[in-house]
């Protein structure tokens, strides 16, 4: 995701509306690979604070692909969050009082800023749905997708008890 500022804001203090829909690279977070599902949308206002200093205030909407902690299957989670981003176009424009991204030239690259902010808005509890059936403890199959015949230590199935009755019959 990028934003070309050439000709957008000629004067200091000028403000323009931005509405960007673009892909954002997947990223690693605590050993997990987090991928965006489809384009990420950023709607907001870009202002020119000083000649080489831009500020972007907006709202991000994205879908991220996460791994469910119960069934280990992928699922898509929609997230949205506000952003306040600061970009310096030259090293000396960097203001140490705010978190700033350095941008070399007229194109502001937004992937890193979107990723960093997305991390704080990804739910800590990873569950594909409220009624996720989880994973079979014996064979590891995702029980939302497939069934298995593993003995999970539950009560006897009707077929087993019928077989037992038959066995009793022959033993008499
Ligand atoms: Zn699940
Ligand atoms: Zn199983």
Short description:
The protein is mainly beta.
Based on the model shown, name its key terms.
two-stranded antiparallel sheet; 172 residues; single chain; 2 domains; binds zinc ion; seven-stranded mixed beta sheet; mainly beta; 38% strand
Can you tell me about this structure?
The chain has two helices and nine strands, in the order βββββββββαα. The chain is rod-shaped and about 95 Å long. The protein has two domains: 2-131, no CATH class; 133-172, no CATH class. The longest helix is centred in the last third of the chain and has 14 residues, at 158-171. The strands form two sheets. Strands 2, 3, 4, 5, 6, 7 and 8 form a seven-stranded mixed sheet that branches. Strands 1-9 form a two-stranded antiparallel sheet. It has 172 residues and is mostly beta strands. The chain has helices spanning 111-119, 158-171, and strands spanning 2-4, 15-22, 27-29, 32-36, 40-50, 53-67, 74-88, 100-102, 107-109. Bound molecules: zinc ion (2 copies).
What is the rounded Rg?
A: 27 Å
Number of beta-strand segments: 9
What is bound: which ligands? zinc ion
Largest sheet: 7 strands, mixed
Distance between the termini: 78 Å
Mean model confidence by pLDDT: 88
How does the overall form come out from the CA principal axes? rod-shaped
Ranges where pLDDT stays below 50 over 5 or more residues in a row are none
- Count of DSSP H/I helices: 2
Helix/strand order? EEEEEEEEEHH
Structural class based on helices, strands and sheet pairing: mainly beta
């Amino acid at each position: 995701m990028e934003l070309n500022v050439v000709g957008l804001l000629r004067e200091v203090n000028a403000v323009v509306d931005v509405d960007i829909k673009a892909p954002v690279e997947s990223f690693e977070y605590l050993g997990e690979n987090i991928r965006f599902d489809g384009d990420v949308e950023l709607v907001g206002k870009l202002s020119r604070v000083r000649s080489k200093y831009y500020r972007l205030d907006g709202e991000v909407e994205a879908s991220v692909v996460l791994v469910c902690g119960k069934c280990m299957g992928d699922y898509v989670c929609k997230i949205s969050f506000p952003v306040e981003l600061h970009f310096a176009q030259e090293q000396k424009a960097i203001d140490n009082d705010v978190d700033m991204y350095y941008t070399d030239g007229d194109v502001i690259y937004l992937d890193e800023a979107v990723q960093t902010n997305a991390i704080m808005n990804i739910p800590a509890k990873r569950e594909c749905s409220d009624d996720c059936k989880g994973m079979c403890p014996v064979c590891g199959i995702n029980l939302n997708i497939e069934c298995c015949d593993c003995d999970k230590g539950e009560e006897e199935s009707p077929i087993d008890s019928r077989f037992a009755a038959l066995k009793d019959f022959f033993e008499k």
